[in-house]
Amino acid sequence: MFDLKHYIWLVGLSALAFWQLPLLTGWPLNVQVLINFFPYILIVFGVFLSLFMNRLLPILILLTLGVLNLAVSFYYTSGNAVDSDLTLLIILPVLTILLPINLLVWTWLPEKGLHRHSYSLLLLSLFSAQWIGLYFLMESFPIHWVSLLNQGIEIEGLNISIVAGVTIIVSWLLMVLKNAYLGDIRVIDRAIIFILLLMSVAFNQLAEPYAFAWLSSISVLLVVISIVFDSHQIAYTDELTRLKGRRALMESFQGLGRKYALAMMDIDHFKKFNDTYGHDVGDDVLVLVAKTLSKISVGTPYRYGGEEFVVVFPRKNAAEVKEALEAVRLNIEALVLNVKAEGKQKPPKVTVSFGLAEKIAEYKNAEAVMKAADEALYAAKKAGRNQIKLAEG
Q: What percent of the chain has pLDDT above 70?
């Protein structure tokens, strides 16, 4: 799903990185000296943040960028190999290939937190094994692979090998497709698209002073900011329905102004349905209802708890939104459930009831309006369910 607010800062920071890239040598000397330390300072901060928020995969992404910076600093200084020219011919294309593969793997794996010790140990072992393996491989690297890895693209200004270039492009396209077509996208998934671009230029600009450290610093900064945004999203989003949760609802009350309407919605006979067909089917119903409710264009839906939902309509009164709620009610009533339960009757249709209230002088705040909507919801259920009731103000 396209989320403009995140792409604004991702594009902005990436543009800043490329804008300042040719100007780095004109920075004050004391700042130039610090550029090489920027990635590590940000990585330490990002790892601490990830530990605090129980996130493993961002740590692996940060460590990958950290190892790359260490390797480049050790093997490559101002365009010269520390060990030998052969070492340089091996290490640079291999690092350029390992970068997108690692970013791709750490992004596509499920996040299970740090408390799943066996899973964390497995991923950390996988991370360590590849770099340890590369270190020992350097001594016995097949000589015919060197020429293959260093076969360059015959375009002026490009210093990345064909194999590395193809790996980066394929990884970048896979991330673009993931962001475009998969539903549950994290901010860090969006950031990886820009990190791949930044680090590709960084490898291509190795001969330029401070370029790799500078672009790495911006890449790490994108990861750190993504950790914060993703943690915010986890805290404010209902895990099952992917709608905003109660905490987000209460915060939305602060900026509603003088004109707004609130609707409380409840799934009819949900407990009976849940008891008859099981909690898994009940969860499926909640997801279907939430997906239908999320299509409402004039308001913002929230999961309040259990089978209850709230829709907030800023700058609208009850008369202006009732038609939209009625369309949602009819769409939910038309949902077809594919439930197989041996010995059970055909499951009833899913229906919902709404209580609708608007801000009037009698209701001093949004909590009072929501209470009125809840009372109207109770009246709708008492009147036979599957209908919308307006609050009596």
A: 87
